[in-house]
Amino acid sequence: MATSTTVIEMATLPSSKDQPIALQTPIRGSSELPGPGASHVVEKKQRWNSPRINTYRLAAIFFAYILFGMNDGSYGALIPYIEADYGLSYTVTSLVFLSPFAGYTFSALFSDRLHRLGGRRGIAILAPACRLVAYIVIATHPPYPAVVTILALAGVGNGLLDAAWNAWIGTLEALRDHKSQRQREES
Q: Which of 6, 17, 93, 119 sits 20 to 30 Å CA-CA off 71?
C-alpha cells in the first residue's frame, strides 16, 4: 500500500507588527490562496455599547429575562388557585412545572435545526408567537390537560428566545478583552 504526503501552506492575515490595521470597517483584500474570489475579511466585534443601539438591545434582552423569571416563578404562587379551580391534587397540579421544562428541552434539542430552517428572522417570529399563542389559550381557561400541553409551547418559545439572545450576547466583545487591548497599545 503506497502512501503520499501533501504539504499545505496556509495563508496568514497580516499581523499588527507588520502593519497597523484599523478595524473600523471590514478589510477586504486578495488572499495568497489560489482560486476564484479568494479573499479575507476581518470584522470588528461589536460591544455592548457600540454601536449605540446595542445598549437598547441589551436592555430589552435583560427585561425579557426578567419576564422569563416572572413566567416561571408565577406557577408556584398559582398552585393553590389551580388546585381549587380545577379540583386537582397537588401532584397532578405540579405538572405545570414539568411541561414548560419539556418545551424548553425540545427547543434546546432542535434550536439549531429551526434556526437553519427559518434563520434569525424565523426564530424572531416563531418564539414570540409560541409564547403569545400559549398565553392567549391559557387566558381562555381551557381544560387542565390543555393547560399542561400549552405550557410546553410557552417553554419552546422561552427556550428559543433564550438561546438566540445568549448567542448574540456571546458574540459581543468582552470588556476585559477591550481593556487588555488598550493596555497593550499603551505599552
A: 119
**Cell output for 27:** 478589510
Whether the CB-CB separation of 32 and 11 falls below 8 Å is answered with yes
CA distance 35 to 41: 16
Cβ atoms < 10 Å from Cβ of 146 = 13
Give the integer Cα–Cα distance in Å for 132 and 126. 10
Q: By CB neighbour count within 10 A (0-12 exposed, 13-18 middle, 19+ buried), where does 72 fall? A: middle
Phi-psi region of 14 (alpha: psi -120 to 50; beta: other; left: phi over 0): beta
**Beta carbons within 8 Å of 72's beta carbon, 6+ residues apart:** 100, 158
pLDDT tens digits for the chain (187 residues)? 566 666 666 555 555 555 544 444 444 544 455 555 556 666 778 888 888 999 999 999 999 999 999 988 898 899 999 999 999 999 999 999 999 999 999 999 999 999 999 998 999 999 999 999 999 999 999 999 999 999 999 999 999 999 999 998 988 888 666 666 666 677 6
